[in-house]
Design goal:
The chain is mainly β. It contains 1 helix and 33 strands. The protein has a domain of 274 residues: Pectate Lyase C-like. 2% of the residues lie in helices and 34% in strands. It is elongated, with a radius of gyration of 21 Å.
Length: 470
């Protein structure tokens, strides 16, 4: 597994971008969740604001240390077993090529284009090459500014490191091609603001690669740019890690943006999404959707210590959607120690029956369904009968916006259960057969309005996102 580099940034979330569209239900297996926007040739462009972004708080917070086995010196807080205070918090640091690599400085958009494609004078980069991108504004054209065609080895990945996260501002997009395994991209900004493209596209296309790390990257936009894709899309990646990233404002925040997401997982294995801020995207924060197997399957997905907030501008637009039909199974998904709050329609929505071993444990949900007036809005949502299976939801805190769940629709018979959670608010207006014992307590959040969901009620201390690691 690749090691990474760098970063505390505490981000309280401001209001979502754009107007709430209040759109009616859209069939998620048709227009509602379009297929991936991946295009091997790519298109792109963009501009950045500061990494704290609008609506954020003071970019400081409690310090912490990463896994001591992580030899790159990462300072992302918390550990991969969950718990602790490291939820959407990290410390950015100046970029540096790891010891033992061969550094090559890049200072112009032409050099970024040529180096990423392996063109003169950067032909055939050797494993262990570190491209060090100097601070500056890099304005690309329609093709990706970074089109990474060459990878390294497990022992000697190829690195793309920015001098500073805010200072390296790339107006454009990135593709990591199927031949570019063992790659690290870190410490820079990709911005879509003002980019014009009538086709579907993503900010970062991740192909059928292995062992890729994206860390300490700001993916940003203007809440008007991006179409039928996401800031990050995996279409078959194996061992992909997304860490300490800001993923915000992708897509058209309004009626046209139902298929515009923060992260789009269309296919892949062993994908880790850890300690990011995923906010204010046009539709879903994270979409897991294999389109009935057209894009393969998803297996081994970990969503850990993320702040997933204020995503969506219409109904059926959520913090996370899990949609598995046909041969496109979604299995072995762990959603642990995350904060879900103020997403438009629901915190997590289940929209397909071919799921296995879905675990939603020790998360905090608050005021999801914040933007919707639909009767079926809820913290946990099931689309309809037969669309939720083999999921365990336990150890969470729910500060309910409308209801805990819209309707169980008989999902208990399919192995779907909500058991042993803190619930402050109504359970459901429909079938409650999948809901077991709950503990009715007010969690006593320190300051929910400011995004601080630590609890003051001792009765709930072992529940929710800040519960001790189990």
């Amino acid at each position: 597994m690749i090691t990474r580099s760098l970063s505390i940034l505490v981000l309280a979330i401001g209001p979502a971008c754009g107007a709430n569209d209040g759109s009616p239900f859209v069939d998620d297996t048709a227009e509602g969740e379009a297929g991936p926007a991946s295009d091997p040739s790519g298109t792109g462009t963009g501009t950045l604001g500061d990494s704290t972004a609008a609506g954020s708080d003071d970019p400081s917070g409690p310090d912490g240390t990463g896994d001591p086995s992580d030899t790159d010196g990462s300072t992302s807080t918390g550990a991969d077993d969950g718990g602790g205070d490291g939820i959407g918090e990290w410390e950015d640091a100046p970029g540096a090529c790891p010891e033992g690599t061969v550094p090559i400085e890049l200072a112009t958009i032409e050099e970024l284009n040529a180096a990423s494609r392996g063109e003169e004078p950067f032909v055939d980069p050797a494993p262990g090459t570190c491209y060090f991108i100097l601070d500056g504004d890099y304005v690309g054209g329609e093709d990706p500014a970074l089109y990474i065609l060459h990878g390294g080895t497990a022992e000697q990945p190829i690195y793309w490191i920015g001098e500073s996260r805010e200072g390296v501002h790339i107006t454009g997009r990135m593709t990591i091609d199927q031949d570019a395994s063992h790659v690290v991209v870190s410490n820079l900004t990709l911005d879509l603001t003002g980019y014009e493209n009538d086709e579907a596209f993503n900010t970062a296309d991740i192909g059928e690669v292995q062992d890729v790390a994206l860390d300490h990257i700001t993916f940003t936009g203007d809440c008007a740019t991006g179409r039928d894709g996401g800031h990050i899309e995996s279409n078959g990646a194996i061992d992909l890690r997304i860490e300490a990233c800001i993923i915000e404002r992708y897509g058209r925040c309004g009626p046209e943006g139902h298929q515009d997401h923060g992260i789009y997982l269309a296919g892949g294995t062993d994908i880790t999404i850890v300690n990011n801020v995923i906010r204010e995207n046009a539709s879903r924060g994270i979409q897991m959707y294999t389109q009935g197997g057209m894009y393969g399957t998803l297996d081994g997905i970990t969503v850990l210590r993320n702040r997933i907030v204020a995503n969506g501008h219409g109904d059926q637009e959520d913090g996370i959607v899990i949609n598995a039909t046909g041969t496109g199974t979604i299995a072995n998904v762990s959603i642990l120690h995350n904060l879900f709050h103020d997403n438009f329609f629901s915190g997590i929505r289940f929209a397909g029956p071919v799921t296995e071993a879905i675990s939603v444990e020790f998360n905090t949900f608050a005021n999801n369904s914040a933007g919707s007036s639909a009767e079926g809005r809820s913290e946990i949502n099931i689309d309809e009968a037969g669309t939720a299976a083999n999921a365990t939801i336990t150890g969470n805190i729910f500060a309910v916006g409308n209801t805990l769940i819209n309707d169980c629709y008989g999902a208990a018979a399919m192995g779907f259960s909500i058991e042993d959670n803190i619930v402050d608010g109504p359970i459901t207006g429909g079938d409650a057969g999948c809901v077991g014992a709950v503990i009715a307590e007010d969690p006593g959040f320190v300051d929910a309005a400011a995004g601080d969901f630590h609890t003051t009620n001792p009765a709930v201390a072992s529940y929710g996102a800040y519960a001790p690691a189990q």
